[in-house]
Amino acid sequence: MERGIAKDLLSIGAVFLRPNEPFTWASGIKSPIYCDNRLILSEPQVRDRVEQALADAIRKNYPECEAVFGTSTAGIAHAALAADILGLPMGYVRSGAKDHGRAKQIEGKLKPGDKVVVVEDLVSTAGSVLEVVETLRNAKANVLGIVSIFTYNMKKGLERLAAAGVKNVSLTNFDLLIKVAAEEGYIPEEDVERLIAFRDNPSDESWMR
């Protein structure tokens, strides 16, 4: 499944590798990879496989799940589709509370003690998804864990998840994806080592040379 999802993401350009012409993150860091899992929604066959895989991952890893909550905004559609397959309630968490109406940050029905799973499209340093987990925990939800489509396996992200006591199950990951990318001809084999160097320390631009 992990290899198949990696192939799907590469084939539709949801994950794009460009080590010789790096992208620039909002932080200013140069990156050889760009990930936009929103594109999955425009590809029905890939979308069906991804949403079924998310639902399967929730069933397998969090069988007690009572509701699915998406991250805003990229995780919302994936959470809705996976919840529909599972026949479970769905909601989402805003990046901040609304400044009008009921001033809610959590949208959807949530009761104290509800066992919930967070759906995220990708995890890098895990900062944003852990903010969602914290918001749900502050609302007295029992957050069982996270299911994500793609994770970078970055040290900072793994350490943050461990420190927060949060499990993340990802459909595919950076290490496997770049291996598949080399096998399928998206990148030359010699670029794999450079990409791993980026993954290990994104702030160190020596991989570019």
Structural notes for this entry:
With 209 residues, the protein is of the alpha/beta class. It is built from seven helices and ten strands. It has helices spanning 2-11, 44-61, 74-86, 127-138, 155-164, 174-183, 191-200, and strands at residues 15-17, 23-24, 30-31, 33-35, 67-71, 90-93, 106-107, 115-123, 142-151, 168-173. The strands form three sheets. A six-stranded mixed beta sheet has the order 7-6-5-8-9-10, sandwiched between helices. Strands 1-4 form a two-stranded antiparallel ribbon. Strands 2-3 form a two-stranded antiparallel ribbon. A hairpin with a 5-residue loop joins strand 2 and strand 3. Helix 2 (44-61) packs across helix 3 (74-86) and helix 6 packs antiparallel against helix 7 (191-200). The longest helix has 18 residues, at 44-61. The protein is globular.
Query: Going across the major beta sheet, what is the strand order?
Result: 7-6-5-8-9-10
Rg over CA atoms, rounded to whole Å, is 17 Å
- Uncertain segments are none
Average residue pLDDT: 93
The largest pleated sheet is described as: 6 strands, mixed
